[in-house]
Amino acid sequence: MKLISHRANLNGPDETRENQVWAIEECIAKGYLVEVDFWLVNGRFYLSHDVPTEEDRIDEDFLYDNLLNLLIHCKNREAISLMEVWDVQHDGCANWFTNDTDRWSLTSKKNVISYCKKEEIVPYSIVIMPEHHNITKEDLKNLDIWGVCTDFVDQYSNRHSYEIKIL
Known about the structure:
The protein is an alpha/beta fold and 167 residues long. It has one domain: TIM Barrel, CATH 3.20.20.190. The chain is built from four helices and ten strands. Strands 1, 2, 3, 4, 5, 6, 7, 8, 9 and 10 form a ten-stranded mixed beta sheet that branches. Strand 2 and strand 3 form a beta hairpin. The radius of gyration is 15 Å and the shape is globular. The C terminus is likely disordered.
């Protein structure tokens, strides 16, 4: 099972870490993938859940250099357009998606994202924020999922062994 840190959080929501380059690098160093909120505005790159400010600006190279370790949540049309271009230019190396309120969505690498109740989870999907739907680690252990994206990713680390069937 892939472990994905939601916005670079490790042990619960922490606004000081969310979408911060240093926190993302820390998560990647621990072996986690990281879900980030990406905006492209006037040719500039930003990581922010909400409408970005100048302090949310990042260097294009940071995003590009870490594509294999990121699950990129495109937050505006321009971000989607850029990811489509990068997919064509670089053989689909980025795994990105867009979603607002849907229970399911599809990433560019054909991973289903399940943000829903346990009974509605699609097999082999990425379960997003299980804590929002009272889905426990034990529940996840018994589901055929590809990964879990959570604010509490450290609680799912190697100390907790899961036998998850992956296609």
